[in-house]
Amino acid sequence: MACVPSSSSVMELANLISQSIPKLQDESSQRANDARENVIEACRKMLALVTSPAEMLKEMALIDRQNLASLQIINHYQIASVVPLNGNIPISELANKCGLPVDILRRILRQAMTYGAFSEPEPGRIAQTDVSKEIPRLSPLLTYQLDVCLPSMVRLLDWLKDIDGEYTCAYQIAHDTKDTWWSSASKRPELIENYGKYMALITSGGAHDVSYVLKGFAWEKLGDAIVVDVGGADGFVGIRLAEEYPNLAVIVEDSLGLKDSADDNIPQHLKSRVVFLPHSFFKPQSALSRDADVFLLRHILHDWNDNACRTILQALAASMKPGASILVAEQILQNPGAASWQRERVMRALDMQMMIQFGSKERAYEDWDALFMSVNPPLEIVGCVHPAGSADSFMELKKRA
């Protein structure tokens, strides 16, 4: 039996939505973004209020998983790149271009239309929508989440049933390997290349935008300094730092497989100050990197369990010159209810993904502090900055005296 929501609760949410809508056009982007988040959260809460618990659970079990299945097919076959941006295309022609049976494609696309991807303006003809037009741009994210992470997700139960067995996470069961994701990807260049594009995508806007790196630490106070971007992929963060701060020299460290991509990505005018150095962060730093003033670890440690994190931090601590810092840019988990509902949804989803994909986790402040202090010598948090709007906090570490 459906739960009848109180009229006062629904009216409160309706009033909040009504009050927030005019602010969506505000010239201040932060004010408009806050209003947008308020509207989204209020709409979600209102939907939850008027949906029965049984309806909600049935929709999760039946509909949500089919949404992911159709989206995976659309992304894999690049269907959104074949459908014209204007006008429409016969589904028979679309099926032929994509190499799929007409009936199968029709059923998949009609299911996708229920969440706004594509439309059928007349029987048998497919047209774009705002949702479907976004799919090609988001392809690196969709490929990683749907082709790599989704199979891992459905094997979580199998992993938990044998949690002390030979596999360290659900990813290994799903992909039939004893390797970590990183080891597997290193053997398949297309996976590493796509992951780099995925990282660049999610850091070019929103709560993970690379601009927050500039706001999370007083870079201007360093003067002439060397920064090592540990696990810095193709250098997109290091490049941004070098562009903003002419006194900084940046060493980008990552696997050898990313060297060509990094060399292509670093602009010619920055090549004297931004260099790529193949390096494993589990090993001590090279002689060149030991002169660094700051070692930046952005979105690295949440991919690893505590023991692996200690190895990474220990290698850095052993290589740091006196006065040098480690800057850790990571999400800090908050207690349930402390963040907005939407932020909490994202936060908990990412924590689950770390468990499933890497056997690791997102961490609360107390977890981070305990982890840093467990290194020998201990690393002490001497500063923690959380820029407004950022998903990440920036924790500065120094060796404890």
Automatic annotation (TrEMBL):
<dbReference type="InterPro" id="IPR029063">
    <property type="entry name" value="SAM-dependent_MTases_sf"/>
</dbReference>
<dbReference type="Pfam" id="PF00891">
    <property type="entry name" value="Methyltransf_2"/>
</dbReference>
<dbReference type="GO" id="GO:0044550">
    <property type="term" value="P:secondary metabolite biosynthetic process"/>
</dbReference>
<keyword id="KW-0808">Transferase</keyword>
<protein>
    <recommendedName>
        <fullName>O-methyltransferase C-terminal domain-containing protein</fullName>
    </recommendedName>
</protein>
<keyword id="KW-0949">S-adenosyl-L-methionine</keyword>
<dbReference type="GO" id="GO:0008171">
    <property type="term" value="F:O-methyltransferase activity"/>
</dbReference>
<dbReference type="InterPro" id="IPR001077">
    <property type="entry name" value="COMT_C"/>
</dbReference>
<dbReference type="GO" id="GO:0032259">
    <property type="term" value="P:methylation"/>
</dbReference>
<feature type="active site" description="Proton acceptor">
    <location>
        <position position="302"/>
    </location>
</feature>
<feature type="domain" description="O-methyltransferase C-terminal">
    <location>
        <begin position="156"/>
        <end position="373"/>
    </location>
</feature>
<dbReference type="InterPro" id="IPR016461">
    <property type="entry name" value="COMT-like"/>
</dbReference>
<comment type="similarity">
    <text>Belongs to the class I-like SAM-binding methyltransferase superfamily. Cation-independent O-methyltransferase family.</text>
</comment>
<dbReference type="InterPro" id="IPR036390">
    <property type="entry name" value="WH_DNA-bd_sf"/>
</dbReference>
<keyword id="KW-0489">Methyltransferase</keyword>
<dbReference type="InterPro" id="IPR036388">
    <property type="entry name" value="WH-like_DNA-bd_sf"/>
</dbReference>
